[in-house]
Amino acid sequence: MTTPGMVLHFSVEGGDxxxxxxxxxxxxxxxxxxxxxxxxxxxxxxxxxxxxxxIVLHARRGRMTLEVAEDKLRVIAEDxxxxxxxxxxxxxxxxxxxxxxxxEMGFGAGMGxxxxxxxxxxxxxxxxxxxxxxxxMDFNHR
Amino acid sequence: xxxxxxxxxxxxEILWGExxxxxxxxxxxxxxxxxxxxxxxxxxxxxxxTGLTNAQVIRTAEMIDLSGIIFVRGKRPPQxxxxxAKERNLPLLMTELPLYETCGILYSAGLExxxxxPSRRR
Lengths: 142, 122
Fold this sequence. Notes:
The complex is a heterodimer.
Chain A: E1 6-13, H1 22-33, H2 38-58, E2 61-68, E3 72-80, H3 87-90, H4 100-104, H5 112-119, E4 122-128, E5 132-140
Antiparallel strand pairs in A: 1-2, 2-3, 3-5, 4-5
Chain B: H1 3-10, E1 13-16, E2 28-31, H2 35-41, E3 46-50, H3 55-64, E4 68-71, H4 79-87, E5 92-94, H5 99-108
Parallel strand pairs in B: 2-3, 3-4, 4-5
Antiparallel strand pairs in B: 1-5
């Protein structure tokens, strides 16, 4: 990835369902403003929204970052939270550790990470138990 | 088929978007209460039928540019959810019918699902 030309950060609070989705919404608007292809924006928006929901549902707090480079977009979702015990298991469709509250919100069906993987060109997950998780997703846009 | 015709087929209440119903023409519809599935399996210009009435439904619609939302089983969203929809120019309808029957009526009338299988008109 070439040096990013634009970097935006958004803080995300764990458990704040009223604000959940605001960071993804701002990311989407920023990409639209700079004229990124609509299909790419859709993929980024879905992946960013799922990542943001994961922070709200599982972590204490976190941060979303959008980096825009000439050839690629990068979304980083990092949190202070429980970490992911088994990443391979978490990547399987239908596997979930989410609460009943998450399910009431329409999430927690075990589709979050699979959706993020499907929408991004590459995904890297760094996680430490009881410390937190960092998800890095790249999207080609040229 | 535009949203006005859909609203009339379902005898649905218009929660927001009276003035824009004629101009909104969904190509597909999806019935689900799981927002991750909606994010994963819908296409552009999809109409969502759901029994979920919280803010995440509006956020989901915003992320993937849904054409509108029909709340089924007489589920009425809270005022702040209607306000969120209004801010995003997203029409909201509500029908007393359950999800299965709402889907059946629209599918029979020719509104396709997101799987790519063509709908069979009556």
